[in-house]
Amino acid sequence: MAEQRAVRWNMMKAACPTRQVIDRIANKWTMMVILSLEEGTLRFSELRGRIEGVSQKMLTQTLRGMESDGLIERTVYPTVPVTVEYTLTELGASLSSTMDVVRQWAYGHIGDIEAARQDYVQRADESDASENSANAVRAS
User: Fold this and answer.
1) 88-114 pLDDT, tens digit each
2) How many CB atoms lie under 10 A from the CB of residue 33?
3) Which pTM value belongs to this model?
């Protein structure tokens, strides 16, 4: 059944709705929310405390989008102040192991990526220096 559905979609096509799905799940904040909630329900403030660097606005937008896509469930308790909790749905939990694979890949390859970035900067600096030398020779 899943194989039949996969043939129906082609994310390389601009109108394919799976692009919206990829946009949601490839978002770094979505990934961090899923990984944070894989151990259980958390309040907004707990999520924000776990995910360093996320603004209140960005976390709110991410949670709303995830809720609308059925990845999380939001429960509001009528307390003063209002208490709001977030839990992964079955659909959201089904992404957890995939997100963990991506996280482990990143942990395992960050050294390679940092080295590649340093090499790139060095090559760009060398290219700029030789280009500046060539321009100086032409100008003389």
Assistant:
1) 999 999 999 999 999 999 999 999 999
2) 27
3) 0.79
